Protein: NADH-quinone oxidoreductase subunit N
Amino acid sequence: MSIEAPDLSLAALTPLLFVFGAACTGVLVEAFGPRESRHPVQVTVALVGTLGGLVSTLLLAGTAEVTAGGALAVDGAAVFLQATIAGLAALSVLMFAERNLDPARSAFVVSAAVPAGSPRDRELLTVQRVQTEVYPLTLFAVGGMMLFVAANDLLVMFIALEVLSLPLYLISGLARRRRLLSQEAAVKYFLLGAFASAFFLYGLALVYGATGSVRLADVRSAVGGGDGEVLLVLGLALLVVGLLFKASVAPFHTWTPDVYQGAPTPVTAFMAACTKVAAFGAILRLLYVAFGPEEWTWRPLVYGVAIVSMVVGAVLGLTQTDLKRMLAYSSVAHAGFLLTGVLGYPGTGDPAGSGLPATMFYLLAYGLTTLGAFAVLTLVRSGDGEATHLSQWAGLAQRSPLTAAVMSLFLLALAGIPLTSGFTGKFAVFRAAIENGAWPLALVALLASAVAAFFYLRVIVLMYFSEPAADGPTVGVPGLPTTIVLAVTAAATLVLGVVPGSVLGLADQAAIFVG
Structure:
């Protein structure tokens, strides 16, 4: 019996090789590098990995092939989403590297193994040493995300889900301050993430039982055949539940507010931007490629959770007094808006005629805006920590007009105000839904957007029309990494709102699935 090696296209795998290669290099640096020089080396390795992945994906533009024995599909949609993930990850690494804002010089705990609240933990709070294991962990998560959006096989998709999830569980518990809250967030994320993985794996087993294959193309061929239809629909439902958890879609969002609040702010920004792109990339591929011809099997499910997510995110966001929790419910509402674009599916099998380009553009715009908002959050201080309570932002415009203006830009973009990227993204997904018969959902989305706009505008009113407290807020002077992040995200938010045509055109050209 001879075993043939699968065909591998090294060119198509270059983005993954860059990121995973950098992650493995980071592990070696941790093992053999001197402690004093690890931080600059790890930052450099992480930036080389993410930027190398970004450049290599750009060079793959126009590629449409299946490689690795049919397990990976390197097509227009995968390349666009991989480029988005790599670019957002590079900006996230810069946020991780910031050391000028905190007296202890880093957002991450020096030693995660020290019990929270112990004398040793209090001693390490002021130590100038920095955590460096976070960089290879982040790179493994990025590699898993890039693999996730290109998976053409349910088993590979599950492996990618675990590769991206496990590092996130760890780095969520590495906050230097509020250690117990951070560790609680990590445990909640791990436990609920394990349930979501179990749902996905059981759904995979049911789909395999119904079709005899885990390849998306084989599943598509079996859909509508009549045999095993009940198993297939149940398997689809469980697969979608596992993916909706990662995408922070209500009612599978319960981990989101606690993890966003407890995790280090740079990690929260990374999860809010990159994980959302990866999860929706997998959702689009699963629904359009594997189950697209029989959209009745998934359309009612997605219709329902989209409405629930928009309503829950908009209404509960109104009740929040912590800014990170408010942005968490904002993420839940935006997940519902994104599902509106997913439902813009014409049923013709042509992704370019669907909401796919609009959804990909929305993911890019939302990721950049969210990273910028969290970058501003790291600057604003109250006492010896970040100002996360809304009352601590009162009068910020009097203390730092530029910081307040930049934050206002990001909040207006999240609200979908014209001349920002958020308006362009929402307009694109709502139009795709209306053109393909989902106009009632677009109407609900418009109403939810109006409700959600209130809690964004509330922060702006606090910054400009309230008197600052005697002890704050204060604004730290950003270092070069945070300055780059703010400049890139603010410029992108304006450009994608004023002249979005070229990026929308790229998304339309990239709306290709092979498999």
Observations:
- Residues 10-509 form one domain.
- The mean pLDDT is 85.
- The radius of gyration is 22 Å.
- The chain has one domain: 10-509.
